Amino acid sequence: MIDISPKERNLLSAMRKRAPMFVGEYSLAKLSIFLGAYSIALKEYGLDNRYCMIPEEFNEFVLKKYSLYPCNRNYAMVILQNISDGKEAIEMFFQLLDEFLEANGFERIS
Predict the structure, then answer these.
(1) Which of 30, 50, 52, 77 could join 73 via S-S bond, C-beta 3.0 to 4.6 A?
(2) Distance between CA 88 and CA 96 in Å, rounded?
(3) Whole-prediction pTM value?
């Protein structure tokens, strides 16, 4: 597992503070799509071995946290199943991401 890259950490930090600036509204679904597309772009250009937006293991961590592992849902689906408010769902996403990072010896997203 690799840590989230410094540049991507800065982007996540900005998203945490102002998600609507990046995806138009408080929407975890849209934020998840943005983050997924970013990760796909890193893979497409062969940069995924040096840069990381969201570690691949995060999804499994969230599924286990909600006692849903194994299943075919992603972290956004699981969070939105439990929290319908967009702003609260995004806050929960970042809380879970911080928990995941700390559990693996990495720093939280500031």
Answers:
(1) 77
(2) 12
(3) 0.93
* Residue 31 contacts residue 93 (beta carbons within 8 Å): yes
Q: Which residue has the tokens 């982007």?
A: 11
* Tokens matching residue 27: 């929407």
Q: What is the CA radius of gyration of the chain?
A: 13
Q: In degrees rounded to 5, what are phi and psi of residue 5? A: -65, 150
Our measurement of the distance from residue 26's CA atom to the centroid of its chain's CA atoms, rounded to an integer in Å, reads 14
Question: How many other C-beta atoms are found inside a 10 Å radius of the C-beta of residue 99?
Answer: 14
Give dist(CA 70, CA 62) in Å, integer.
11
Residue in the structure block whose two tokens are 């194994």: 70
**Cα distances (Å, whole numbers) of residue 106 to 1, 52, 102:** 11, 13, 5
Other CB atoms closer than 10 Å to residue 22's CB: what's the count? Answer: 13
Cβ–Cβ under 8 Å, residues 109 and 99: no
What is the tens place of the pLDDT at every residue in 43-68? 999 998 889 999 989 999 999 999 98
| Both tokens assigned to 15 | 């998203």
